[in-house]
Amino acid sequence: MFDVTSIRSQFPALGRIDDGLPAAYLDGPGGTQTPQRVIDAMSTALSEGVSNLGGGFPPSDLAGDITEGARRAMADLYNCHPGEVVFGQNMTSLTFALSHALAATWQEGDAIVLTDIDHDANFTPWARAADERGVDVRVARFDPETGLLDPTSVTELIDEKVRLVAVAYSSNALGTVVDLEPIVEAAHSTGALVFVDAVHAGPHHLVDVQELGCDFLASAVYKFFGPHTGVLYGRADLLASLDAYKVRPAPSDPPGKWETGTQSYESLAGVTAAVDYVASLGSSGNTRRESLADAYREIEQHERSLGERFISGVHEISGAKLWGVQQMSRQRCATFAVTIDGASPKDVTAHLASRSIYAWAGHYYAVNLMERLGVLDKGGLVRIGFVHYNTAEEVDRCMEALAEI
Ligand SMILES: Cc1ncc(COP(=O)(O)O)c(C=O)c1O
User: Fold this and answer.
1) Looking at the domain 40-278, which fold is it?
2) N or C: which end of the chain has fewer CB within 10 A?
3) Which of ligand 1's atoms lies nearest the C-alpha of 92?
4) Global pTM?
5) Is any atom of ligand 1 closer than 6 Å to the C-beta of 209?
6) Kind and range of the H or E run holding 166
7) 167 CA distance to ligand 1 middle (Å)
8) Which residues of the chain are in CATH 3.90.1150.10 domains?
9) What is the average per-residue pLDDT within 211-226?
10) What integer pLDDT is reported at residue 36 of this predicted model?
11) Which of 172, 222, 333, 387 to mutate to test the pocket of ligand 1 (most atoms within 8 A of CB)?
12) Can you give the three-state secondary structure of 177-208, one letter per residue?
Protein backbone atom coordinates (compact mmCIF):
# COMPACT_ATOMS: atom_id res chain seq x y z
CA MET A 1 0.00 0.00 0.00
CA PHE A 2 1.46 3.35 -1.09
CA ASP A 3 1.36 5.60 1.97
CA VAL A 4 2.72 9.07 1.10
CA THR A 5 2.65 10.29 4.70
CA SER A 6 4.84 7.46 5.89
CA ILE A 7 7.07 7.82 2.82
CA ARG A 8 7.55 11.54 3.50
CA SER A 9 8.44 10.90 7.12
CA GLN A 10 11.54 9.07 5.86
CA PHE A 11 12.89 12.24 4.21
CA PRO A 12 14.22 14.78 6.74
CA ALA A 13 14.35 17.54 4.10
CA LEU A 14 10.63 17.21 3.36
CA GLY A 15 9.91 18.43 6.90
CA ARG A 16 11.50 21.80 6.12
CA ILE A 17 9.53 24.93 7.00
CA ASP A 18 10.22 28.15 5.10
CA ASP A 19 8.64 31.40 6.26
CA GLY A 20 6.18 29.40 8.33
CA LEU A 21 5.09 27.27 5.36
CA PRO A 22 5.98 23.64 4.67
CA ALA A 23 8.47 23.51 1.80
CA ALA A 24 7.06 21.96 -1.38
CA TYR A 25 9.85 20.44 -3.42
CA LEU A 26 8.58 20.55 -7.01
CA ASP A 27 12.16 20.64 -8.30
CA GLY A 28 12.61 16.86 -8.52
CA PRO A 29 13.72 17.02 -12.18
CA GLY A 30 16.74 19.01 -10.98
CA GLY A 31 17.47 16.53 -8.20
CA THR A 32 15.46 14.75 -5.51
CA GLN A 33 15.76 14.72 -1.72
CA THR A 34 17.19 11.72 0.12
CA PRO A 35 15.60 9.43 2.70
CA GLN A 36 17.25 8.91 6.09
CA ARG A 37 18.52 5.44 5.14
CA VAL A 38 20.65 6.96 2.35
CA ILE A 39 22.01 9.62 4.69
CA ASP A 40 22.74 6.93 7.31
CA ALA A 41 24.48 4.64 4.81
CA MET A 42 26.73 7.48 3.69
CA SER A 43 27.61 8.69 7.15
CA THR A 44 28.15 5.12 8.43
CA ALA A 45 30.63 4.47 5.62
CA LEU A 46 32.57 7.56 6.66
CA SER A 47 32.34 7.11 10.40
CA GLU A 48 33.23 3.40 10.35
CA GLY A 49 36.40 4.16 8.41
CA VAL A 50 36.64 3.60 4.70
CA SER A 51 40.06 3.51 3.00
CA ASN A 52 41.08 3.21 -0.61
CA LEU A 53 40.69 -0.08 -2.50
CA GLY A 54 43.15 -2.94 -2.36
CA GLY A 55 44.92 -2.32 0.98
CA GLY A 56 44.11 -5.74 2.43
CA PHE A 57 42.88 -4.38 5.79
CA PRO A 58 39.28 -3.94 7.01
CA PRO A 59 38.52 -0.30 6.05
CA SER A 60 39.97 -1.00 2.61
CA ASP A 61 37.93 -4.19 2.30
CA LEU A 62 34.90 -2.10 3.19
CA ALA A 63 35.54 0.11 0.15
CA GLY A 64 35.54 -3.04 -2.00
CA ASP A 65 32.36 -4.37 -0.39
CA ILE A 66 30.60 -1.05 -0.79
CA THR A 67 31.59 -0.86 -4.46
CA GLU A 68 30.46 -4.39 -5.23
CA GLY A 69 27.22 -3.84 -3.30
CA ALA A 70 26.47 -0.72 -5.33
CA ARG A 71 27.16 -2.57 -8.60
CA ARG A 72 24.75 -5.33 -7.59
CA ALA A 73 22.12 -2.77 -6.63
CA MET A 74 22.39 -0.93 -9.95
CA ALA A 75 22.43 -4.24 -11.83
CA ASP A 76 19.11 -5.08 -10.17
CA LEU A 77 17.77 -1.66 -11.01
CA TYR A 78 18.75 -1.86 -14.68
CA ASN A 79 18.46 -5.63 -15.19
CA CYS A 80 22.08 -6.13 -16.21
CA HIS A 81 25.21 -7.81 -14.88
CA PRO A 82 27.10 -6.01 -12.04
CA GLY A 83 30.19 -6.01 -14.27
CA GLU A 84 28.30 -3.80 -16.72
CA VAL A 85 27.87 -1.00 -14.15
CA VAL A 86 30.38 1.86 -14.17
CA PHE A 87 30.34 4.67 -11.60
CA GLY A 88 31.60 8.20 -12.09
CA GLN A 89 31.19 11.74 -10.91
CA ASN A 90 28.01 12.43 -12.85
CA MET A 91 26.29 11.56 -16.12
CA THR A 92 28.00 14.37 -18.01
CA SER A 93 31.56 13.29 -17.17
CA LEU A 94 30.78 9.64 -17.91
CA THR A 95 29.36 10.65 -21.28
CA PHE A 96 32.38 12.79 -22.16
CA ALA A 97 34.68 9.88 -21.22
CA LEU A 98 32.73 7.37 -23.29
CA SER A 99 32.49 9.80 -26.22
CA HIS A 100 36.30 9.90 -26.46
CA ALA A 101 36.58 6.14 -26.40
CA LEU A 102 33.83 5.60 -28.97
CA ALA A 103 35.02 8.40 -31.23
CA ALA A 104 38.39 6.68 -31.49
CA THR A 105 36.59 3.95 -33.48
CA TRP A 106 34.96 6.46 -35.89
CA GLN A 107 36.33 7.58 -39.23
CA GLU A 108 35.87 10.56 -41.43
CA GLY A 109 32.66 10.10 -43.43
CA ASP A 110 30.90 8.28 -40.58
CA ALA A 111 27.85 9.86 -39.02
CA ILE A 112 26.08 9.99 -35.67
CA VAL A 113 22.45 10.79 -34.86
CA LEU A 114 21.49 13.08 -31.98
CA THR A 115 18.17 14.71 -31.10
CA ASP A 116 17.07 18.21 -30.21
CA ILE A 117 14.85 17.01 -27.37
CA ASP A 118 17.92 15.98 -25.37
CA HIS A 119 19.66 17.64 -22.43
CA ASP A 120 22.95 19.08 -23.63
CA ALA A 121 24.86 16.35 -21.75
CA ASN A 122 23.58 13.95 -24.42
CA PHE A 123 24.42 16.31 -27.25
CA THR A 124 27.63 18.30 -26.87
CA PRO A 125 29.92 15.41 -25.78
CA TRP A 126 28.95 13.54 -28.97
CA ALA A 127 28.90 16.59 -31.24
CA ARG A 128 32.39 17.65 -30.12
CA ALA A 129 33.79 14.15 -30.49
CA ALA A 130 32.25 13.94 -33.96
CA ASP A 131 33.69 17.31 -34.90
CA GLU A 132 37.18 16.22 -33.86
CA ARG A 133 36.92 13.08 -36.02
CA GLY A 134 35.34 14.67 -39.12
CA VAL A 135 32.12 12.77 -38.44
CA ASP A 136 28.76 14.07 -39.63
CA VAL A 137 26.19 15.02 -36.98
CA ARG A 138 22.55 14.44 -37.93
CA VAL A 139 19.97 15.94 -35.59
CA ALA A 140 16.48 14.45 -35.28
CA ARG A 141 13.87 17.09 -34.53
CA PHE A 142 10.98 16.81 -32.10
CA ASP A 143 7.57 18.32 -32.81
CA PRO A 144 7.26 21.63 -30.93
CA GLU A 145 3.46 21.48 -31.18
CA THR A 146 3.01 18.12 -29.47
CA GLY A 147 6.30 17.92 -27.56
CA LEU A 148 6.81 14.42 -29.00
CA LEU A 149 9.87 12.96 -30.67
CA ASP A 150 8.42 10.86 -33.47
CA PRO A 151 10.69 7.79 -33.72
CA THR A 152 10.54 8.16 -37.51
CA SER A 153 12.32 11.50 -37.27
CA VAL A 154 15.24 9.54 -35.78
CA THR A 155 15.02 6.35 -37.83
CA GLU A 156 14.89 8.23 -41.15
CA LEU A 157 18.37 9.58 -40.37
CA ILE A 158 19.86 6.12 -39.80
CA ASP A 159 21.81 4.43 -42.59
CA GLU A 160 25.00 2.34 -42.82
CA LYS A 161 27.18 5.40 -42.20
CA VAL A 162 25.70 5.94 -38.74
CA ARG A 163 27.87 4.62 -35.89
CA LEU A 164 25.91 5.91 -32.92
CA VAL A 165 22.42 7.08 -32.02
CA ALA A 166 22.27 9.05 -28.74
CA VAL A 167 18.75 9.65 -27.51
CA ALA A 168 16.86 10.53 -24.34
CA TYR A 169 14.64 8.10 -22.49
CA SER A 170 12.62 11.15 -21.49
CA SER A 171 12.90 14.92 -21.64
CA ASN A 172 13.98 16.76 -18.49
CA ALA A 173 12.16 19.84 -19.80
CA LEU A 174 8.79 18.71 -21.18
CA GLY A 175 8.49 15.33 -19.49
CA THR A 176 8.03 13.63 -22.89
CA VAL A 177 8.83 9.90 -22.86
CA VAL A 178 10.50 8.71 -26.07
CA ASP A 179 9.38 5.54 -27.85
CA LEU A 180 12.81 3.91 -27.98
CA GLU A 181 11.96 0.49 -29.41
CA PRO A 182 11.81 1.44 -33.12
CA ILE A 183 14.93 3.59 -32.71
CA VAL A 184 17.00 0.78 -31.19
CA GLU A 185 15.73 -1.64 -33.82
CA ALA A 186 16.61 0.67 -36.72
CA ALA A 187 20.03 1.49 -35.28
CA HIS A 188 20.94 -2.14 -34.75
CA SER A 189 19.70 -3.14 -38.19
CA THR A 190 22.53 -1.10 -39.72
CA GLY A 191 25.11 -1.82 -37.00
CA ALA A 192 24.89 1.50 -35.12
CA LEU A 193 25.20 1.59 -31.34
CA VAL A 194 22.57 3.17 -29.12
CA PHE A 195 23.32 5.36 -26.09
CA VAL A 196 20.31 6.24 -23.92
CA ASP A 197 20.23 9.16 -21.48
CA ALA A 198 18.01 7.77 -18.71
CA VAL A 199 18.74 10.51 -16.19
CA HIS A 200 15.21 11.84 -16.26
CA ALA A 201 13.67 8.35 -16.12
CA GLY A 202 15.27 7.44 -12.76
CA PRO A 203 12.55 8.57 -10.34
CA HIS A 204 9.63 7.70 -12.62
CA HIS A 205 10.17 4.46 -14.57
CA LEU A 206 11.72 1.04 -14.14
CA VAL A 207 14.59 0.92 -16.60
CA ASP A 208 15.32 -2.43 -18.23
CA VAL A 209 18.38 -2.41 -20.45
CA GLN A 210 17.63 -5.93 -21.72
CA GLU A 211 14.18 -4.94 -22.83
CA LEU A 212 15.40 -1.66 -24.32
CA GLY A 213 18.21 -3.48 -26.07
CA CYS A 214 20.44 -0.39 -25.84
CA ASP A 215 24.23 -0.63 -25.81
CA PHE A 216 24.84 2.10 -23.24
CA LEU A 217 22.62 3.90 -20.78
CA ALA A 218 23.63 6.69 -18.44
CA SER A 219 21.97 8.00 -15.34
CA ALA A 220 22.52 9.95 -12.12
CA VAL A 221 21.56 8.68 -8.68
CA TYR A 222 20.74 12.11 -7.23
CA LYS A 223 17.68 12.13 -9.47
CA PHE A 224 16.29 9.08 -7.71
CA PHE A 225 16.73 9.76 -4.01
CA GLY A 226 20.44 9.00 -3.77
CA PRO A 227 23.75 10.84 -3.70
CA HIS A 228 25.39 12.92 -6.42
CA THR A 229 26.95 10.06 -8.39
CA GLY A 230 26.73 9.12 -12.07
CA VAL A 231 26.15 5.61 -13.41
CA LEU A 232 26.83 4.14 -16.81
CA TYR A 233 25.56 0.81 -18.07
CA GLY A 234 27.61 -0.59 -20.93
CA ARG A 235 27.21 -3.91 -22.74
CA ALA A 236 29.91 -6.22 -21.36
CA ASP A 237 31.63 -6.89 -24.70
CA LEU A 238 31.78 -3.18 -25.54
CA LEU A 239 33.13 -2.17 -22.14
CA ALA A 240 35.80 -4.86 -22.61
CA SER A 241 36.77 -4.08 -26.20
CA LEU A 242 36.74 -0.27 -26.21
CA ASP A 243 39.88 1.56 -25.25
CA ALA A 244 39.06 3.55 -22.09
CA TYR A 245 40.90 6.81 -21.32
CA LYS A 246 42.65 5.69 -18.17
CA VAL A 247 45.97 5.91 -16.35
CA ARG A 248 48.35 2.97 -16.85
CA PRO A 249 48.20 1.36 -13.38
CA ALA A 250 44.38 1.44 -13.30
CA PRO A 251 42.59 -1.88 -13.93
CA SER A 252 42.62 -3.01 -17.53
CA ASP A 253 39.32 -4.85 -17.28
CA PRO A 254 35.81 -3.45 -17.02
CA PRO A 255 34.19 -1.98 -15.12
CA GLY A 256 37.28 -0.71 -13.25
CA LYS A 257 39.05 0.47 -16.40
CA TRP A 258 36.26 3.02 -16.95
CA GLU A 259 36.33 4.40 -13.41
CA THR A 260 38.91 7.16 -13.41
CA GLY A 261 40.61 7.81 -10.08
CA THR A 262 39.17 7.05 -6.68
CA GLN A 263 35.43 6.67 -6.40
CA SER A 264 33.30 8.31 -3.70
CA TYR A 265 32.76 5.21 -1.54
CA GLU A 266 30.40 7.05 0.78
CA SER A 267 28.29 7.89 -2.26
CA LEU A 268 28.40 4.28 -3.45
CA ALA A 269 27.10 3.22 -0.03
CA GLY A 270 24.30 5.73 -0.67
CA VAL A 271 23.62 4.25 -4.12
CA THR A 272 22.81 0.85 -2.62
CA ALA A 273 20.66 2.48 0.05
CA ALA A 274 18.80 4.51 -2.61
CA VAL A 275 18.01 1.40 -4.68
CA ASP A 276 16.96 -0.45 -1.51
CA TYR A 277 14.78 2.51 -0.58
CA VAL A 278 12.96 2.40 -3.94
CA ALA A 279 12.62 -1.40 -3.63
CA SER A 280 11.08 -0.92 -0.18
CA LEU A 281 8.17 0.95 -1.80
CA GLY A 282 7.10 -2.25 -3.56
CA SER A 283 5.69 -5.37 -1.99
CA SER A 284 8.54 -7.67 -1.03
CA GLY A 285 9.18 -9.85 -4.06
CA ASN A 286 11.44 -12.87 -4.34
CA THR A 287 14.20 -10.64 -5.64
CA ARG A 288 15.11 -6.98 -5.29
CA ARG A 289 14.32 -6.58 -8.98
CA GLU A 290 10.78 -7.85 -8.40
CA SER A 291 10.29 -5.42 -5.53
CA LEU A 292 11.64 -2.62 -7.71
CA ALA A 293 9.19 -3.51 -10.48
CA ASP A 294 6.32 -3.41 -8.02
CA ALA A 295 7.58 -0.14 -6.52
CA TYR A 296 7.69 1.58 -9.89
CA ARG A 297 4.13 0.43 -10.63
CA GLU A 298 3.02 2.17 -7.43
CA ILE A 299 5.15 5.23 -8.19
CA GLU A 300 3.71 5.56 -11.70
CA GLN A 301 0.17 5.30 -10.41
CA HIS A 302 0.70 7.96 -7.74
CA GLU A 303 2.53 10.31 -10.11
CA ARG A 304 -0.15 9.84 -12.71
CA SER A 305 -2.85 11.03 -10.31
CA LEU A 306 -0.71 14.05 -9.31
CA GLY A 307 -0.08 14.77 -12.99
CA GLU A 308 -3.78 14.59 -13.89
CA ARG A 309 -4.63 16.93 -11.03
CA PHE A 310 -1.93 19.35 -12.14
CA ILE A 311 -2.97 19.32 -15.81
CA SER A 312 -6.65 19.93 -15.09
CA GLY A 313 -5.66 22.72 -12.67
CA VAL A 314 -3.40 24.44 -15.19
CA HIS A 315 -6.10 24.31 -17.84
CA GLU A 316 -8.35 26.27 -15.47
CA ILE A 317 -5.92 29.15 -14.98
CA SER A 318 -6.43 31.87 -17.56
CA GLY A 319 -3.20 32.89 -19.25
CA ALA A 320 -1.42 29.68 -18.23
CA LYS A 321 0.04 27.48 -20.94
CA LEU A 322 1.18 23.89 -20.55
CA TRP A 323 3.85 22.99 -23.11
CA GLY A 324 4.18 19.55 -24.65
CA VAL A 325 1.96 16.50 -24.15
CA GLN A 326 -1.42 17.60 -22.78
CA GLN A 327 -2.48 14.52 -20.83
CA MET A 328 -0.94 11.88 -18.63
CA SER A 329 -0.14 8.86 -20.79
CA ARG A 330 2.73 6.55 -21.70
CA GLN A 331 4.13 9.52 -23.61
CA ARG A 332 4.80 11.71 -20.60
CA CYS A 333 5.79 11.73 -16.94
CA ALA A 334 4.78 14.25 -14.28
CA THR A 335 7.36 16.87 -15.29
CA PHE A 336 5.66 19.98 -16.64
CA ALA A 337 6.81 23.06 -18.48
CA VAL A 338 4.46 26.02 -18.15
CA THR A 339 4.32 29.74 -18.78
CA ILE A 340 1.95 32.44 -17.56
CA ASP A 341 1.07 35.32 -19.86
CA GLY A 342 2.66 38.58 -18.80
CA ALA A 343 5.08 37.03 -16.27
CA SER A 344 8.63 35.90 -16.98
CA PRO A 345 9.55 32.34 -15.92
CA LYS A 346 11.82 33.83 -13.23
CA ASP A 347 8.94 35.98 -11.92
CA VAL A 348 6.77 32.88 -11.72
CA THR A 349 9.30 30.80 -9.79
CA ALA A 350 10.09 33.77 -7.53
CA HIS A 351 6.39 34.00 -6.68
CA LEU A 352 6.23 30.25 -6.07
CA ALA A 353 9.33 30.51 -3.86
CA SER A 354 7.61 33.27 -1.87
CA ARG A 355 4.99 30.61 -1.09
CA SER A 356 7.77 28.10 -0.19
CA ILE A 357 7.22 26.16 -3.42
CA TYR A 358 10.47 25.25 -5.13
CA ALA A 359 10.44 25.07 -8.92
CA TRP A 360 12.80 25.95 -11.73
CA ALA A 361 12.91 28.64 -14.42
CA GLY A 362 15.19 28.64 -17.45
CA HIS A 363 16.45 26.07 -19.95
CA TYR A 364 17.82 23.42 -17.54
CA TYR A 365 20.49 22.66 -20.16
CA ALA A 366 17.86 21.53 -22.69
CA VAL A 367 19.08 24.34 -24.91
CA ASN A 368 18.23 22.89 -28.32
CA LEU A 369 14.70 22.14 -27.18
CA MET A 370 14.24 25.67 -25.82
CA GLU A 371 15.54 27.12 -29.06
CA ARG A 372 13.04 25.05 -31.08
CA LEU A 373 10.26 26.25 -28.80
CA GLY A 374 11.42 29.85 -29.36
CA VAL A 375 11.92 30.55 -25.66
CA LEU A 376 15.68 30.24 -25.23
CA ASP A 377 16.21 34.00 -25.23
CA LYS A 378 12.97 34.65 -23.34
CA GLY A 379 13.98 33.12 -20.05
CA GLY A 380 12.99 29.57 -20.99
CA LEU A 381 10.04 27.90 -19.27
CA VAL A 382 8.88 27.21 -15.73
CA ARG A 383 9.47 23.59 -14.78
CA ILE A 384 7.28 22.00 -12.13
CA GLY A 385 8.00 18.35 -11.43
CA PHE A 386 6.36 15.75 -9.22
CA VAL A 387 7.89 12.60 -7.82
CA HIS A 388 6.37 9.95 -5.58
CA TYR A 389 6.89 11.91 -2.36
CA ASN A 390 4.79 14.85 -3.57
CA THR A 391 1.16 15.15 -2.56
CA ALA A 392 -2.19 16.28 -3.95
CA GLU A 393 -2.10 19.15 -1.43
CA GLU A 394 1.18 20.32 -2.94
CA VAL A 395 -0.38 20.28 -6.40
CA ASP A 396 -3.24 22.41 -5.06
CA ARG A 397 -0.90 24.86 -3.33
CA CYS A 398 1.02 25.21 -6.57
CA MET A 399 -2.22 25.87 -8.46
CA GLU A 400 -3.26 28.55 -6.00
CA ALA A 401 0.11 30.26 -6.26
CA LEU A 402 0.02 30.13 -10.08
CA ALA A 403 -3.54 31.51 -10.08
CA GLU A 404 -2.38 34.43 -7.90
CA ILE A 405 0.01 35.44 -10.68
C1 LIG B 1 17.99 14.38 -18.91
C2 LIG B 1 19.30 14.74 -18.27
N3 LIG B 1 20.43 14.30 -18.83
C4 LIG B 1 21.64 14.57 -18.30
C5 LIG B 1 21.76 15.35 -17.17
C6 LIG B 1 23.11 15.61 -16.63
O7 LIG B 1 23.29 14.86 -15.46
P8 LIG B 1 24.52 15.11 -14.51
O9 LIG B 1 24.23 16.33 -13.71
O10 LIG B 1 24.60 13.88 -13.65
O11 LIG B 1 25.73 15.27 -15.34
C12 LIG B 1 20.61 15.86 -16.57
C13 LIG B 1 20.71 16.72 -15.38
O14 LIG B 1 19.84 17.47 -15.07
C15 LIG B 1 19.35 15.54 -17.12
O16 LIG B 1 18.21 15.98 -16.58
Assistant:
1) Aspartate Aminotransferase; domain 2 (3.40.640)
2) N
3) 11
4) 0.98
5) no
6) strand 162-168
7) 13
8) 4-35+288-404
9) 98
10) 98
11) 172
12) ECCCHHHHHHHHHCCCEEEEECCCCCCCCCCC
